[in-house]
Amino acid sequence: MLSKNIETFLGCDAEYADATTVLFGAPFDSTTSYRPGTRFGSRAMRQESYGLETWSPYQKQDLTDRAIFDSGDLELPFGAPEVALQLIRERTAKILADGKRPFLLGGEHLVTLGAVEAVLEQYPDLHIIHFDAHADLRDEYLGITLSHASVIRRCWDLMGNGRIAQFGIRSGDQAEFQWGENHIHTQLFNFTGLAHILDTIGERPVYFTIDLDVLDPSCFPGTGTPEAGGVTFPELLDAIFLVLGQANVVACDLVELAPPLDPTGVSTATACKILREMLIAME
Amino acid sequence: MLSKNIETFLGCDAEYADATTVLFGAPFDSTTSYRPGTRFGSRAMRQESYGLETWSPYQKQDLTDRAIFDSGDLELPFGAPEVALQLIRERTAKILADGKRPFLLGGEHLVTLGAVEAVLEQYPDLHIIHFDAHADLRDEYLGITLSHASVIRRCWDLMGNGRIAQFGIRSGDQAEFQWGENHIHTQLFNFTGLAHILDTIGERPVYFTIDLDVLDPSCFPGTGTPEAGGVTFPELLDAIFLVLGQANVVACDLVELAPPLDPTGVSTATACKILREMLIAME
Amino acid sequence: MLSKNIETFLGCDAEYADATTVLFGAPFDSTTSYRPGTRFGSRAMRQESYGLETWSPYQKQDLTDRAIFDSGDLELPFGAPEVALQLIRERTAKILADGKRPFLLGGEHLVTLGAVEAVLEQYPDLHIIHFDAHADLRDEYLGITLSHASVIRRCWDLMGNGRIAQFGIRSGDQAEFQWGENHIHTQLFNFTGLAHILDTIGERPVYFTIDLDVLDPSCFPGTGTPEAGGVTFPELLDAIFLVLGQANVVACDLVELAPPLDPTGVSTATACKILREMLIAME
Amino acid sequence: MLSKNIETFLGCDAEYADATTVLFGAPFDSTTSYRPGTRFGSRAMRQESYGLETWSPYQKQDLTDRAIFDSGDLELPFGAPEVALQLIRERTAKILADGKRPFLLGGEHLVTLGAVEAVLEQYPDLHIIHFDAHADLRDEYLGITLSHASVIRRCWDLMGNGRIAQFGIRSGDQAEFQWGENHIHTQLFNFTGLAHILDTIGERPVYFTIDLDVLDPSCFPGTGTPEAGGVTFPELLDAIFLVLGQANVVACDLVELAPPLDPTGVSTATACKILREMLIAME
Amino acid sequence: MLSKNIETFLGCDAEYADATTVLFGAPFDSTTSYRPGTRFGSRAMRQESYGLETWSPYQKQDLTDRAIFDSGDLELPFGAPEVALQLIRERTAKILADGKRPFLLGGEHLVTLGAVEAVLEQYPDLHIIHFDAHADLRDEYLGITLSHASVIRRCWDLMGNGRIAQFGIRSGDQAEFQWGENHIHTQLFNFTGLAHILDTIGERPVYFTIDLDVLDPSCFPGTGTPEAGGVTFPELLDAIFLVLGQANVVACDLVELAPPLDPTGVSTATACKILREMLIAME
Amino acid sequence: MLSKNIETFLGCDAEYADATTVLFGAPFDSTTSYRPGTRFGSRAMRQESYGLETWSPYQKQDLTDRAIFDSGDLELPFGAPEVALQLIRERTAKILADGKRPFLLGGEHLVTLGAVEAVLEQYPDLHIIHFDAHADLRDEYLGITLSHASVIRRCWDLMGNGRIAQFGIRSGDQAEFQWGENHIHTQLFNFTGLAHILDTIGERPVYFTIDLDVLDPSCFPGTGTPEAGGVTFPELLDAIFLVLGQANVVACDLVELAPPLDPTGVSTATACKILREMLIAME
After folding, report:
1. Closest to D132 measured CA to CA, from D49, D193, D208, D238
2. Which of F142, F218, F256 to mutate to test the interface with A (most CBs of A within 10 A)?
3. How high is the mean pLDDT of chain F?
4. What span, in angstroms and rounded, lies between the C-alpha atoms of B152 and B140?
5. Which sign does the torsion angle of CA C78, C81, C82, C88 carry?
């Protein structure tokens, strides 16, 4: 008998029961204020990953030696952020409850909030390592408090001071940066100080969120709000290896790939390679 | 002294006090379930309208002989449909209160609901003439009741049976069509019966909503959910002239242009021409 | 436990054992001489079909009431047409052997040859109904006999005179048309005479192959060699209903969608709708 | 020895001495007021013509049976319309002096003026048949008298009343149409009356200029100022056959293809097919 | 009463009387010899600037603390460079006469000439600092002396030796470089020596012209003639801060953004950020 | 008399008899497994090269001082790699036999094999210097041994151990790298060790093959399988100057430019510049 058409990210074909890490997509971009399109991110990564090798010449290891399950995309209602976040929360909690590490693929950055909420339930002493071009610390926008521009501020609401460290930041309004100075750790433009932050976190659990627009638009144009002056691909890779090699990462995400905005396909291919390296490095 | 840079739709430069019709844009597409991009519709129409002449060879009249004011786009929060609808309602009510005809440019089709609510306040015996490829009669989707796929159903909630007539419809699920049979008038594929419906409405006030995807995708590819088998541009123009020539249209809208989805620019140019013809025909 | 990510064409989620029709894709375009890209056709149709309703307002029936299994894409080696055709032949034969109707999604038109060979094994009295802009009757090109421009000629090699009828043809070289006059039935530009041909075929088994470039490029630009002067979508739909309503179609295919060549996505959406209508009409 | 790389339009490879018709390109679009790009028109047609067959199923004749020479593109200075027109004039005059028919490929419509000037020298009783969406009758624009929007008015300056007939027109300002009523023949929207005009012209020499935007944007989006409501490809073909079959066409042009504006390539392919049909029909 | 739709570059909404710097656009690209599109540059920057924050994390200052007026785009006739330059000259002179600093947004590089002519009237001892990939020192091209490839040569005609310094140059013909050696200062590839040149200029007035193609095409593909091997965004930013921090810049421009050539939008976003930094740094 | 339209790469217009280097294109991409499009590479380079200067500011020399003949593109049958390779072999042999250096423009990387076979005939002690992102050392794929992913492995079949050195490699499967360790020299990521390898080769003849995807996708997105983490343009240029300045390069190629995958045109422009620098440096 013929088998059904199963589509997973490259080589992530473990059985759920055996998997240590579980991928899931959150195709949601309703609060994106500038150019939408991240709703297509997780799908495009699955579809385009067949252009990638499973072998990492960086780590000299193979993705097929990892046990990863790709559960596909959630079905999320556009225009209803609370409902979307609730569904993300539930999926994350389910994966954690089964003793596996959740790996969320965006979608816009707001989706991180749902995952963080669920992880916090299980790991009250959670820290967040945040790579991004944007501070995402706005308290509200036109009276709205749930948006991609506020997501880290909302995480802080749940976690309080001294538990969030962000790197690569190069955009935000004055109020965000002023607020940030007293509540979180912000490193502008690059990854300076990352090793030190990781030292101070030590063995405590970490949620690792990467907004791909931390990359320079020259190598990652496919994102809603590209910001010139970003980090290079090798710089990002090194920083990722540092975090995954040193921190106790209990959950993570990769967000803000907007495939329709890059007709060359390079952004999606680059996101796929970053995901491959993360999945290999994580264990 | 130099003057500020004012950008209006082609020739719509009357003073507000003198205007009989007032344009405003609702750049909102948060509930779009397939391909977003209509948020850029009203802006693109203003910007690209300078490629169009003000003279209509169809009506042998000139747009500059009409008194139209273009108040630009509302600032709407993405991801918060209720707030967006409230702001549209307020703007519509203000224009009506000043004795002028509101003309809303989308954005996605949900924005119609805000305008209809305001118009109903002033014209309780309102009828709706609806041109569209999609029935938009869904009761809910994933539990969400405010979305572009439900907008006409929500209007019906406010108006009841026998007051909505839709034309050109060629997509919907079975439940929508079954429900529709008992509550509204649905003409599949074309404009057959339009004159008769207009006769029965007579002098009663009409809200005229045009989802541009009623056009065949060959002449209007720039929309979120293109549906093969639509009406031609001349057929649409004739139907518009019929409605505007015969009915008492107190407010109208033109929605679902998604400029990024048509890199040729033809969809935007066509939308501009339709708007020109409507604005000339309306008075 | 979470389930794997299964991706099928809209609503084609029957179990294989229950299915009467089985879809499979042949992502191959190695012999395309002008603009490649059809290798992405079947995948794009699966992915984009979620923008389509399962209900047909044309037939007033629902796709979910059909029992269809989508077995995904074959893995085909580029640059090796004989191997690709062999794999297509095997898949087609397997489906026929299990008493089901194969439905092949291209890929370029050459893939039809593999399917026809397998169907001929089971149905020696097979006829072919062929919709296309191109005659595809070339004997060879630069010495090569297996190519998309020769596919119908190769079918004739297997079947002989009087068993192939083609419609909508508007491109070919002089030699093709001259040869065709004595060996097959060619209707230029449109579907005139289709009903008569179907009458003469009667109950004999039919392979129905549709090269989507039979459509006018205005409604279907996403194909390798667009030819102005094609049929409209409603004309094609009517012809399809005629064939499927009258002939004993034992296998069919839909080929030559090249998604990267149409950035508006309209071609893929149109191909999806045609497939929906065919799948509903077939039973 | 290897030969140089010669690139001509499909099958137009006669020796100059033998040719009856001579193609040349005028890659100029400096006066285009909206979206430039026609400078790439003639090149794209040569390059893409290899996707086309030389056989016409419409005329049942083959382009290779015609003696046509393609002399490539003129080198024209951008920003200097007078110089460009002078170079076009010289090339046209040279071809006429050699007893051959010039066929100019645009570029923008202004280039027609250079050719018409040269043809008028040899044929003082010249008439113009003009297919276009735009009247092109503006006297000046911002004080400038040489532009694509004025080209037919400039021709009239040279020829006077009653010698220009235009068809398919659907855009212009009020002043153009009013002026036109008294000086030329304008048929709005379609080709009604074309046969009659050709009768009245009789054997007198005709310059035939086709602005490809006369076609509906659905089948020809690749042009600077697309105008909804145009003629179909079969309608244009019929009108072309009428003109070339009946009139004494001593020179002609095909202008306003802007390949970068149509990423599907359909516009270029359609222009190539129209050129093939014209070249075959001309003799 | 509702207000008109005013569109300015991000945060540049001072009253003219209060403004110290005045922006204006010159949407002109008629002499562009390769790929046109810069005519859309200034508009696109206004429209896309809403995706940018007003706060500069580089300078720790906010654009809204500057007094800048954006007077929109000039209306320039295509195909008539002399007329366009005259209009640019007049606008520049008007702004200077009112005691404000003109900031010109291109358009192609030729527009600089109009501005320089006006500034020279008021500041006879003017120097030019020129960032570009191209030398722009051609004396003529096909006999034409007014073109984007000659603009700096034309400035030299007015200013003479030793007053123009160009940086980042990596394209030109041999004659240009040879001529340049004796008349201006040319730094190939980078900004080496910039500080020294600024020292020698001292307090004398400077016109600062930036052709954005000085950037590497990896971060700025949206320009007519991209040249591999350019400077990075941080390098350009540093050089800009050096010029604006040290020199007496009395007027400046930013030219050669061609938005249609970069479908990712990154080039426009980058140009916006450079403009923000320049406007903040200038005072 | 007018001359035919000859199209060559910029300034490569020597007579064949006088030429020391002969360009030819191999427009073939039938075995490309991911995204096709390199078939358009050589044509696009010729067409777009007119946007480039002949003068090299890097080498301070002019391309027009070299004697290069461009013989255009081979006509190759798609879907038949053996035939295509045979035609490439014959062309290469002919050029070598005439005492000239062949320079092949791809097309996909498989075309290199045809050229290497011919060069090996004449130079049995040939070495290969290979710049690439991909190892191309696969033994077979789905049973197929002739493909772009196997091309260097096929060269090794002919040449044996110790004669192939590759640089910039950052993608391959585990088996390829393991095999490579014992048979060829592989430098990951960059050009480290290139000078040393050139020293060991000394005066022996070298075939120099550059797969342009060795460049980082930020500066070269237009290729079938972009791989983040590549070399920069200046790094590649330096490595090319090293090879061409030191080695006895008897033939070379430049492959894998896929113009349709980069709508900005930057990739083609960059390939043109690399070719210019190579042609100047080669003599």
Report:
1. D208
2. F218
3. 96
4. 12
5. positive
Report how far residue A257's alpha carbon sits from residue A277's, in angstroms, rounded to the nearest whole number: 17
Orientation angle between helical segments E266-281 and E233-246, nearest 10 degrees: 20
Smallest Cα distance from E263 to chain F, Å: 7
Helix, strand and coil in chain C, % to nearest 5: 40, 20, 40
Q: What are B215's two structure tokens?
A: 């056009």
Q: Which of B173, B174, B187 to mutate to test the interface with C (most CBs of C within 10 A)?
A: B174
Provide ipTM, 2 decimals. 0.96
Q: Does residue C107 have a cis peptide bond before it, meaning omega lies within 30 degrees of 0?
A: yes
Using CA atoms, how far apart are residues C121 and C125, in angstroms rounded to an integer? 10
Return the number of CB contacts < 8 Å for B and E.
61
Which residue intervals of C123-250 are DSSP H helices? 151-159, 174-181, 194-201, 233-246
Q: How many CA atoms lie within 13 A of C87 on its CB side?
A: 19
Instruction: Map residue E192 onto helix, strand or coil.
Output: coil
For residues C9-23, one letter each, b for 16 or more C-beta atoms within 10 angstroms of the residue's C-beta and e for the rest, the string is: bbbbebebeebebbb
Contact D98, D51 (CB under 8 A): no
Helices of type H across B13-148: 41-48, 81-97, 111-122
Element holding E18 (H helix, E strand): none
In degrees and rounded to multiples of 5, residue F98 shows phi and psi of -85, 10
How far apart are the C-alpha atoms of B19 and B279, rounded to whole Å? 12
Residues facing residue F207 across a β-bridge: F128, F251
Q: What whole-number distance in Å separates Cα of residue B194 and Cα of residue B192?
A: 6
Structure tokens at D1: 């020895």
Q: Give the helix ranges, DSSP H, for chain E.
A: 41-48, 81-97, 111-122, 151-159, 174-183, 194-201, 233-246, 266-281
Burial A229-249 (b: 16+ CB within 10 A, else e): bbbbbebbbebbebbbeebeb
Which residues, 6 or more positions from C274, have their beta carbon under 8 angstroms from its beta carbon? Answer: B228, C210, C212, C236, C237, C240, C254
Partner-chain contact E144 D80, CB within 8 Å: yes
Task: Establish if C218 touches chain B: CB-CB under 8 angstroms.
Answer: yes
Choose the closest CB to A79 out of B31, B39, B75. Answer: B31
Give A43 to chain C, closest Cα distance, Å: 9
User: Could you list the mean pLDDT of each consecutive 10-residue stretch along chain C, which spans 283 residues?
Assistant: 85 93 97 93 96 97 96 94 97 97 97 98 98 97 90 98 98 97 97 98 98 98 97 98 98 98 97 98 90
pTM of the model: 0.97
B26, amino acid identity: A
C81 contact F CB<8A? yes
pLDDT of residue D96: 98
Q: E146 by DSSP, 3-state: which?
A: coil
User: At residue E4, does pLDDT exceed 90?
Assistant: no
Per-residue pLDDT tens digits for A16-29: 999 999 999 999 99
Predicted confidence (pLDDT) at residue D1 exceeds the cutoff of 70? no
Q: What mean pLDDT comes out for the span B60-82?
A: 95
Query: Residue D223, by phi and psi: left (phi above 0), alpha (psi -120 to 50) or beta?
Result: beta
3 state SS of B139: coil
- What is residue D103's three-state secondary structure? strand
At residue C104, φ and ψ (nearest 5 deg) are -95, 130
Q: If pLDDT is split at 50, 70 and 90, which confidence band does F1 have? A: low
Pairwise CA distance, residues E240 & E115, whole Å: 20
Average pLDDT over residues D178-194: 97
Query: B-chain residues within 8 Å CB-CB of C259?
Result: none
DSSP, res B3: P
